[in-house]
């Protein structure tokens, strides 16, 4: 997504809105190991809500590398 930086003098310059991505290690109890994922802050909230097992199952079903 893109937008503008707007100064106090109302000068406009282009900027980008980047996702808030982080590398995070999640403990997977069923596999007895840590999984390192690159997730956004919103993705971490989804994992907290649904559980890491459900999220990993969905990622593997879509064919993404975990």
Protein model, in words:
The chain contains two helices and four strands; from the N terminus they run E-E-E-E-H-H. A two-stranded antiparallel ribbon has the order 1-2. It has a two-stranded antiparallel ribbon with strand order 3-4. Strand 1 and strand 2 form a beta hairpin. It is of the alpha+beta class. It is elongated and about 55 Å long.
Layout of secondary structure:
Blueprint: E1 2-6, E2 12-16, E3 21-28, E4 33-40, H1 41-50, H2 52-61
Antiparallel strand pairs: 1-2, 3-4
Helix pairs in contact: 1-2
Structural class: alpha+beta
**Count the strands?**
4
State the end-to-end distance. 26 Å
**Mean pLDDT, all residues:** 95
Shape: elongated
**Main sheet, how many strands, which sense, barrel?**
2 strands, antiparallel
Helical run tally: 2
Biggest sheet: strands side by side, in what order? 1-2
Helical content (DSSP H or I, runs of 4+): 25-40%
* SSE series: EEEEHH
Uncertain runs are none
Q: What proportion of the residues form beta strands (DSSP E)?
A: 35-45%
Return Rg in Å: 18 Å
Describe the structure in brief.
The chain is of the alpha+beta class and 66 residues long. The chain is built from two helices and four strands, in the order E-E-E-E-H-H.
């Amino acid at each position: 997504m893109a937008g503008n930086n707007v100064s106090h003098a109302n000068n406009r310059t282009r900027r980008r809105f980047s996702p808030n991505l982080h590398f995070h290690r999640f403990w997977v109890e069923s596999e007895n190991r840590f999984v390192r994922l690159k997730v956004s802050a919103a993705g971490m909230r989804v994992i907290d809500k649904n559980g890491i097992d459900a999220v990993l199952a969905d990622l593997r079903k879509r064919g993404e590398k975990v």
